[in-house]
Amino acid sequence: MTEQSITLQPVAHVVGGRVEPTDDYWGGTRAIIRIDDPRLDAESTKGLEEFSHLEVVFHFHVTDQSDPPLDARSARNNPDWPVAGIFAHRNMRRPNWLGVSRCRLLEVDGLDLHVEELDAVDGTPVLDIKPWFADFGPRGPIRQPSWPTEMLAKYFAPPEGHADL
Fold this sequence. Notes:
Elements: E1 12-15, E2 30-35, E3 53-59, E4 73-74, E5 83-84, E6 98-109, E7 112-116, E8 125-131, H1 147-151
Antiparallel strand pairs: 1-2, 1-8, 2-7, 3-6, 3-8, 4-5, 6-7
């Protein structure tokens, strides 16, 4: 295989919501995905309001990219969880610094997509936006070890001190 560069241009940016990435408490977090690619106009969001959820591909732009963690390690450096390779993790420290999030679509207002529980921070470059099709969900039985469920127990909980969200 030969080395190949891929150049991507953001189609949107996250406005509002969280200002720094955290491991937990994304529940109730609201933000706007503002489509700001000059090639796109309001036609690009036509019909999107019919969907309840979006799948968003974005760039982890605030993560220190000088030392990507390519070695196997325990999630969140917790010795109670098994050592796993980079492709068994879903965190922000990735070889290509790409994130994928599924979030709730609350409203389409022209080129502003109001969303909830998008785990990307203010200013995040969005590379692609797709409606969630239930038909593309997993087929067949789902299998995973117990540690992701333990680790993510508070991931979509309301922010600490904001139980009323």
